[in-house]
């Protein structure tokens, strides 16, 4: 087991992290969505380390991160016009495009799929790191598989401490939920995972008729293999409160409440986290995992999470909450 160093992201530490990446090591770094655990996407052995560190099943493909459009050609076989439109509009930013895989990308990155997920992050630390590493970086979220996603360097150290040599600290992630994952095929944009780019923004960019959300039903690993029904789960049970439901006083006493705009006076919860007093869904998304981490740390027996409106970033928030509420099979 190695010691984990959490260091502020500076020119020197980014340079060091880039060197580690080139040498085949995995390092954790901030992006605008969540912290990533990166390795050289063209090095199968380095990528295997990611799966080992996260205890992630090999059927779950990784997203490849690039620093500039000139890198797209290194990982993707062809870029349809519709994908170009999305890149021009949303990159750098929280949009992952699933496209035909290039030959140099090892199968372990894509879980054997003929497609690869690619994204150009907007976070300056992520961009500089990839630029200096001079290779595309495969990076899932820097947490244990299935657990809460990390939006601060401390979250990474808490889950992966002793397993990763270096964590670049870039402060709190601004978007706070993972990228929107879309597959571009036959003139359509299919949303496989709601995330930091709202569906409405995609519709505005390419036309309503061209955007499809979810489905068709899973063809083995084909759809969004990471999207197991349980995911993003804290260590205690989560219950989503829909339609203004509230637990009784007895249940609330040992429980935590993840409230949207504010907590009710009754019942009294052991701990409360409010996502956005002004009801702003962007703010709610940004604080979602942070709030769940804090309730988990408060030692509550269970977390009740208030439903938020399912529009804009609210869609990504509800996707994460519903998955957190599913218990993982043990
Ligand atoms: O915001 C993000 O996307 C963050 C940061 C670090 O960039 N990364 C992230 O990675 O959320 P991860 O591994 O936690 O989720 C990646 C998901 C996979 O679970 C899968 O659902 C989807 O992206 N994905 C990746 N490649 C795919 C492919 N070829 N086909 C379908 N889905 C794919
Ligand atoms: Mg993840």
Overview in brief:
With about 325 residues, the protein is α/β, with parallel strands linked by helices. Helices cover about 30% and strands about 20% of the residues.
Can you tell me about this structure?
With 330 residues, the chain is an alpha/beta fold. It folds into 2 domains: 5-213, DHBP synthase (Alpha-Beta Complex), CATH 3.90.870.10; 238-325, Threonylcarbamoyl-AMP synthase, C-terminal domain (Rossmann fold, 3-Layer(aba) Sandwich), CATH 3.40.50.11030. 31% of the residues lie in helices and 20% in strands. The chain has helices spanning 11-22, 44-54, 72-75, 81-90, 107-110, 124-133, 153-160, 199-206, 249-253, 281-297, 314-325; strands at residues 5-8, 27-29, 36-40, 63-65, 95-100, 115-119, 137-138, 166-169, 180-185, 188-193, 211-213, 238-241, 255-259, 271-274, 302-306. The strands form 3 sheets. The protein has a 9-stranded mixed β-sheet, sandwiched between helices. Helix 1 crosses helix 6. It starts with a strand and ends in a 5-residue tail after the last helix. Residues 217-223 have low confidence and may be disordered. Residues 140-141, 149 line the site of magnesium ion. Magnesium ion is lined by residues 140-141, 149. It is found in: Cytoplasm. One of its GO terms (biological process) is regulation of translational fidelity. One of its GO terms (molecular function) is double-stranded RNA binding. It comes from Winmispira thermophila (strain ATCC 700085 / DSM 6578 / Z-1203) (Spirochaeta thermophila).
């Amino acid at each position: 087991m190695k010691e984990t160093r959490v260091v502020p992201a500076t020119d020197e530490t980014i340079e060091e992290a880039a060197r580690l990446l080139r040498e085949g090591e995995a390092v954790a770094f901030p992006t605008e969505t969540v912290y990533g655990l990166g390795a050289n996407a063209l090095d199968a052995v380095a990528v295997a380390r990611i799966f080992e560190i996260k205890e992630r099943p090999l059927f779950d493909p990784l997203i490849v991160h690039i620093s500039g459009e000139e890198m797209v050609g290194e990982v993707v076989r062809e870029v349809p016009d519709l994908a170009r439109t999305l890149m021009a509009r949303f990159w750098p930013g929280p949009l992952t495009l699933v496209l035909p895989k290039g030959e140099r990308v090892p199968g372990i990155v894509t879980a054997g799929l003929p497609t690869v997920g690619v994204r150009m992050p907007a976070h300056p630390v992520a961009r500089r790191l990839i630029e200096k590493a001079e290779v595309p970086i495969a990076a899932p979220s820097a947490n244990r598989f299935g657990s809460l996603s990390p939006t601060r360097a401390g979250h990474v150290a808490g889950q992966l401490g002793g397993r990763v040599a270096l964590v670049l600290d870039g402060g709190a992630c601004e978007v706070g939920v993972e990228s929107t994952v879309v597959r571009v095929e036959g003139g359509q944009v299919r949303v496989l995972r709601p995330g930091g780019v709202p569906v409405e923004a995609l519709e505005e960019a390419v036309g309503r008729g061209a955007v499809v959300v979810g489905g068709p039903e899973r063809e083995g690993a084909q759809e969004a293999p990471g999207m197991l029904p349980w995911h993003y789960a804290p260590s205690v049970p989560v219950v989503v409160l829909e339609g203004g439901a509230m637990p009784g006083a007895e249940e609330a006493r040992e429980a935590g409440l993840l409230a949207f705009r504010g907590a009710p006076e009754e019942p009294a919860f052991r701990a409360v986290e409010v996502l956005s007093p002004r009801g702003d869904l962007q703010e709610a998304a940004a604080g979602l995992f942070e709030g769940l981490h804090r309730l988990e740390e408060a030692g509550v027996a269970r977390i009740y999470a208030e439903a938020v409106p399912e529009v804009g970033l609210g869609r990504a928030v509800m996707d994460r909450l519903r998955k957190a509420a599913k218990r993982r099979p043990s």
